[in-house]
Amino acid sequence: MARAGLTAERVTIAGAELADEVGLDQVTMSQVARRLGVKDASLYTHVRGLEDLRGRIALLAADEKTIRIAEATSGRAGKDALVAFADAWREYAHQHPGRYTATQTSIRIDPELAAQAAGPRRAVELTYGMLRGYGLAEPDLTDAVRLLRSTFHGFVALEAAGGFAHERSPQKSWVRALDALHTLLEHWHPSREGDSA
Fold first, then answer.
1. Rounded CA Rg of the chain
2. Quick check: 1 pLDDT over 50?
3. DSSP H helical ranges for the chain
4. Which residues 6+ apart lie within 8 Å of 170 measured at CB?
5. Angle at 48 between CA 43 and CA 53, to 5 degrees
6. Cα–Cα distance, 141 to 145 (Å, whole number)
7. Which of 3, 73, 166, 178 has the fewest CB atoms within 10 Å, counting from its CB?
């Protein structure tokens, strides 16, 4: 019998905490059960299995990261918004590496849970809204979103893997990268019909 008060949310949080400690790929249902002080079978009353748990962790992390970005960028525009957005992204990745990985990994998520989750939709709205401040419209908005995501994720992934061994501090390179992105966005050349794909 499951411990009183055990819920899908508690199981998800326990899984997310474990993912931050040992890495998302190392999380098992047995480890989560031990963390909660219950038998493995008790978890299956609340989550369907490891893939379901990973999907729930991804949605939890998307909500948390989006809230941070929204708070950081509130009332800001242009470069201030870009820097606040990027710094909140990087800070979340540093503080919650396992959860962050869940947001960047292809995980099959229950469609019903995904439909109820505000985080992923809000993240898209925030990103597009910030970029509209640079005067971008489609298809340039989507291209710019992909550029930002690639830059932010690439930087934090390399940083987490110890990929910046040069004596120059990664923070200094991060600041320069954001300066360069801001300049690029300010001088973005609009797409033209007939451009090659």
1. 19
2. no
3. 8-22, 29-36, 40-43, 50-73, 78-95, 97-103, 111-116, 119-132, 140-160, 170-186
4. 155, 159, 164
5. 80
6. 6
7. 166
102 and 52 in contact (C-beta within 8 Å)?
no
Q: Are 45 and 2 in contact (CB under 8 A)?
A: yes
Token pair recorded at residue 168: 């120059």
CB 75 within 8 A of CB 66: no
**What is the spatial distance between Cα 31 and Cα 65, in angstroms, rounded to a whole number?**
25
Which amino acid is located at 114 in the chain? Answer: A
Distance CA 140, CA 190 (A): 6
Give residue 25's pLDDT band: very low, low, confident or very high (50, 70, 90).
very high
* Average pLDDT for 174-186: 98
